[in-house]
C-alpha cells in the first residue's frame, strides 16, 4: 500500500486588513518580490515559496497568522538593514537554541497588519 505524503509547502496565506499597506510593507520593507496582485490578494516569491496576502473572505479568517520565520544570511546585518527600512522589532537578535557549535538566532517583528514574524539565522560559534 502506498502512503500519500506531503511533499513541500507551496504557499502560506497571511490575512491582512489593508492590502495596499501590506503590499508596501512586504515589498519595500522586507524586500520580497511581488509576483502579482488583485484588489483583495497579493502574491510574493520567497525563494520558491509563495506568500499570499489576502483580505479575509469571512470573519472566521480575520485573525493574525502563524509566525513566519524568514531566513537571512546575517541576522545582525539584516536586523540593522530592516530597521533602517522602518521594520520595528520587539527586541534585538538573540540566541534561541544552541546545538553543539551551532546556534539559532532570531529577531521578532510585527507587520503592518499585526502579524508576528521573525528573522532567523544560524551561527557557528567558535
Q: How much strand?
A: 35-45%
Rg from Cα: 16 Å
- Give the quaternary arrangement of the chains: single chain
N-C termini distance: 48 Å
CATH class: Alpha Beta
Mean pLDDT: 91
Low-confidence stretches: none
Backbone structural class: alpha/beta
**What name goes with the CATH superfamily?**
2,3-Dihydroxybiphenyl 1,2-Dioxygenase, domain 1
Name given to the CATH architecture:
Roll
> Which range best describes the helical content: under 10%, 10-25%, 25-40%, 40-55%, 55-70% or over 70%?
10-25%
CATH topology: 2,3-Dihydroxybiphenyl 1,2-Dioxygenase, domain 1
Number of strands: 8
Backbone shape: globular
- Give the total of domains: 1
User: What's the order of the H and E elements?
Assistant: EHEEEEHEEE
Q: Which strand order spans the largest sheet, edge to edge or round the barrel?
A: 1-4-3-2
Largest sheet: 4 strands, mixed
What is the count of DSSP helices, taking H or I runs of 4+ residues?
2
Protein name: VOC family protein
InterPro entries: Anthracycline_SecMetBiosynth (IPR052164), Glyas_Bleomycin-R_OHBP_Dase (IPR029068), Glyas_Fos-R_dOase_dom (IPR004360), Glyoxalase_1_CS (IPR018146), VOC_core (IPR037523)
GO molecular function, one term: lactoylglutathione lyase activity
Pfam family, one: Glyoxalase
